[in-house]
Amino acid sequence: MTMREHDIVVYGATGFVGVLVAEYLAAHAPAGTRVALAGRSESRLEAVRRRLGVEWPLVVADAADSDALATLAAATRVVVTTVGPYAKYGRALARACAAAGTDYTDLTGEVLFVRSNIDENHDLARSTGARIVHSCGFDSIPSDLGVHVLHQRVTADGAGELTDTTLVVTSMRGGVSGGTIDSLRHQIDVVRKDRDLRRIATSPYSLSPDRAAEPDLGRQGDLVSLRGADVDPALRGSLAPFFMGPYNTRIVRRSNALRQFAYGRSFRYRETMSTGTSPLSPLLAAGAKVGMGALVVGLALPPTRFVLDRVLPKPGEGPGERARREGHFTIDIYTRTTTGARYAARFRAKGDPGYAATALMLGESALALACDRDSLPPSGGGVLTPATGIGDALTDRLRAAGVEITTRVLSDPSGKK
Fold first, then answer.
1. In whole angstroms, what is the distance from residue 303 CA to residue 217 CA?
2. Is the N end or the C end of the chain the one with fewer CB atoms within 10 Å?
3. Where do the DSSP E strands lie in 301-381?
4. 3 state SS of 354
5. What single-letter DSSP state applies at residue 195?
6. Phi and psi based region of residue 318 (left: phi greater than 0; alpha: psi -120 to 50; beta: remaining)
7. Domain chopping of the chain, boundaries
8. Among 211, 208, 212, 220, residue whose Cα is nearest residue 258
């Protein structure tokens, strides 16, 4: 890449999460890293710069101004953007980065946005070498890197390929992002009006590079309720569907397909969350499943949406500093291999998942793209995933930042521990 004015531009630096990412970079970027703050309001950017106590340059660019976004993209090596819903505000910036050969990373959890970006920009980004890496926050780094390190461990042990693989949110404390709710609201509005987009949004392989190349594994449902023992003999209680699973699973399947199905042709993946081990655990799991469906239906119907819009978090809103600090999450991913062995990976971090931990993950993603070029996967450019676009460089950075990312053997092919 030719010399650029900036190493990293934080786009949306005046938003709630954008400020958190800028704060993280101010505290953790290596000395000499050239960071700039970008958004549509110079006065608000200046206020953020004063709050951070830095002398970073400011870049004014509206999300609807294609010329300004093209100039921004051409001036930096990496763009990290928190401006969503991405389907409304992110397409021009992603296109500008793909055209300029500029690496890009975001926090999207929007299937339709990523699908359109793949269709519009994957080949262009490959030709320019731009790594367009979506979903570098709680959506979907724990899922994607968790399966990535699990695959590495199984391969290193010569234990075959991954088959049935289940993510379990073992514990979590944190709030729901107003931006996430707004993205869900926007996608519901779009798919209500277009049957073809509705099919894409609901397909388990909607982000796959070639649906026809996917193995026939039968139904890949998202809203699954299970007994813990169905996943691993030692796992107690019941498991409810994880509300981010419908998106994360598609990112993980895209990683497998982009790697020519390295995880395995029999790799099946789903995401759940533990509802504990009390006698009420099955009822809680069933209630969570019903609640997820009810939220989607409620946002789709005008009368109930009117009520929900007044009680759900709004874009730009978020928890206070203490709540962000006291949040946490622990995710365990269980798999059985083609040799009959069982393995698990753990991904655990401190901080509110959608805010503090996400700011860390997105910040380290940008730093890996900017500072660790020689350690990135050899995939080159394209519309990629955290595992295929950043891979071990990000895993190493997250571990160094205090995130636990580990693997363990649960049993060998004979069933012995």
1. 39
2. C
3. 328-337, 342-350
4. coil
5. H
6. beta
7. 6-138+356-399, 141-352+402-411
8. 208
* Structure-token pair, residue 360: 């860390």
The number of beta carbons lying within 10 Å of the beta carbon of residue 220 is 16
Helix (H) or strand (E) holding 9: strand 6-11
Q: Which CATH superfamily is domain 6-138+356-399 in?
A: NAD(P)-binding Rossmann-like Domain (3.40.50.720)
**Is the Cβ–Cβ distance between 149 and 157 less than 8 Å?**
no
Taking the C-alpha atoms of residue 18 and residue 37, their distance in angstroms, rounded to an integer, is 9
Q: Report the alpha-carbon distance of residue 65 to residue 93 in Å, rounded.
A: 9
Say whether 135 sits in a helix, a strand or coil: coil
Q: Whole-model pTM?
A: 0.93
Cα separation, 135 vs 385, in Å, equals 7
Secondary structure of residue 350 in the 3-state scheme: strand
- Gap between the Cα atoms of 211 and 199, Å rounded: 13
Confirm if 328 and 342 have CB atoms less than 8 A apart.
no
Helix (H) or strand (E) holding 298: helix 281-300
pLDDT tens digit string along 197-230? 888 888 999 999 998 899 888 877 776 778 899 9
Q: How far is it between the farthest Cα atoms of the chain?
A: 65
* Amino acid sitting at position 287: G
Cα 299 to Cα 111, 221, 292: the distances in Å are: 17, 22, 11
pLDDT digits 0-9 by tens, 321-375: 888 889 999 999 999 999 999 999 999 999 999 899 999 999 999 999 999 999 9
Helix (H) or strand (E) segment spanning residue 55:
none
SS3 79: strand
pLDDT digit string, tens, across residues 94-115:
999 999 999 999 999 999 999 9
In a 3-state reduction of DSSP, which class is residue 74? helix
Rg, Å, the chain Cα set? 21
Helix (H, G, I), strand (E, B) or coil at 236: coil
